[in-house]
Design brief:
- With 404 residues, the protein is an alpha/beta fold.
- α4 crosses α5, α9 packs across α14 and α12 packs across α15.
- The protein has 16 helices and 13 strands.
- The strands form two sheets. The protein has a seven-stranded parallel beta sheet with strand order 3-2-1-4-5-6-7, sandwiched between helices. Strands 10-9-8-11-12-13 form a six-stranded parallel beta sheet, with helices on both faces.
- Helices cover 44% and strands 16% of the residues.
């Protein structure tokens, strides 16, 4: 019996590579899976790793009407050709184009995942346009999955979507975390020691780690200022920045860039495919972001037994139990970040206990296998509804072989 076709769509392959690692391979046991995104060469590498088919359609992350129309036409032709049973999109531009094209071509099941809302930081006409785009995406979809309860509450309170269309899978997240892969046991101490030596980090240094985009929106300005205040009091401290700057989309102030470049205690290593060695050499992860969907790095750090200091925002405050598995601080509050770092620096036993609690919580609530089964459950339910439209299907008892 031929497998039904599932097309997963993201704007850029980085989302498949980093946000959906392993998920498409898992789903290929049940469906003929195709990955669609931009950047043919990068997409090809991701698809080959996942063992699925692929098709490249150039998409932009910005508002580009002509390019967007061309991409929409290509989606329509692709869906007519492939005749997928399910189209499941993720990221804003991919969602808009794929959901419109799927509706136009009569795709039986149209699903979209929201991992964050750029409109939350926009203002004026741009915000109104982004709201209209999101609402059009949701109207074309049968179901919209959101990766955190906080983001769900925001969408409902702002009237972006009807409640019956919205759902949070499991306890949140879009892909969960591989707690075996993100484990201290899987990072060679010799590798970590070698990295420390290369970066000039002593074994007794207290290392504050940041992993993510080095941009203003992630709270880097406040983090750098807080760390420099800590470094003024303590000599054996380091700030390790892991990620790329985005000067064209969200540049850091020149003053902050000068502080990073001019202080030997601040080490910036750029983007890294494998962040585990950098988490392993850390004492605390700090994510002072202004907004998040459901931050994977918090799951990864917790799985690595690293306590997390994060802003008290959507996603972060669902993963972290304040004072138990990490510390929550107000947004844009340099002093609060400074005090939180100092607390963990001066209370190593508390820091270690928080790290252990973090891993226990991640294993219990955010394991990858659990979330993948939840996604397979959803697909199976929609398959049954389409195949047997007159039959009630409720709960997991109605789920067929896909969920087993």
């Amino acid at each position: 019996m031929l497998q039904k076709k599932l097309i997963r769509v993201t704007t850029v392959p980085l989302s498949i590579d980093k946000l959906l690692t392993g998920q498409l391979r898992f789903l290929s046991s049940f469906f003929d899976v195709m990955a669609v995104s931009s950047d043919l060469e990068y997409l090809k590498r991701c698809a080959e790793r996942e063992g699925v088919r692929y098709a490249a359609i150039d998409m932009t992350r910005g508002i580009t009407p002509l390019k967007d129309f061309v991409a929409l036409v290509r989606f329509v032709f692709l869906f007519y050709k492939e005749r997928p049973f399910i189209v499941h999109s993720q990221t804003p531009k991919a969602g808009l184009l794929a959901m419109i094209a799927a509706k136009v071509t009569g795709v039986p099941v149209r699903l979209h995942t929201v991992g964050g809302l750029p409109l939350m930081k926009a203002t004026g006409m741009k915000q109104k346009l982004l709201i209209a785009i999101e609402q059009l995406t949701y109207r074309c979809a049968h179901r919209v999955y959101v990766n955190s309860h906080g983001l769900s509450a925001y969408m409902l309170s702002h009237g972006l979507i009807r409640p019956e269309k919205l759902e949070v899978l499991g306890n949140g997240s879009t892909n969960g975390v591989d707690t075996h892969f993100f484990s201290r046991e899987n990072v060679l101490p010799s590798h970590t020691s070698q990295l420390r030596e290369q970066l000039g980090i002593d074994a007794d240094d207290f290392v504050t780690v940041f992993v993510g985009r080095i941009v203003k929106d992630k709270g880097i300005v406040e983090l750098v200022d807080a760390f420099l205040k800590v470094a003024a009091k303590y000599e054996k401290v380091k700030l390790l920045l892991v990620g790329m700057e985005e000067p064209e989309t969200d540049p850091l102030p020149k003053q902050t860039l000068s502080k990073i470049a001019g202080n030997q205690a601040i080490i910036s290593v750029g983007f890294k495919d494998d962040v585990r060695p950098y988490l392993a050499m850390g004492n605390v992860l700090v994510l002072p972001s202004y907004r998040e969907g459901f931050p994977n790095v918090v799951l990864q750090a917790g799985s690595m037994e690293l306590p997390v200091i994060a802003t008290n925002i959507n996603g972060c405050n669902e993963i972290i139990v304040d004072g138990v598995s990490g510390l929550l601080v107000p947004v844009k509050n340099t002093l609060a970040i400074q005090h939180a770092i100092l607390r963990l620096l001066n209370e190593p036993e508390l820091s270690q206990q928080m790290g252990r609690s973090a891993r226990e919580r991640i294993i219990a609530f955010y394991g990858q296998a659990y979330l993948w089964k939840q996604i397979a459950h959803q697909y199976a339910l929609f398959e049954q509804k389409v195949t047997n439209p007159g039959v009630e299907h409720q709960g997991t008892d109605a789920i067929g072989a896909h969920a087993k």
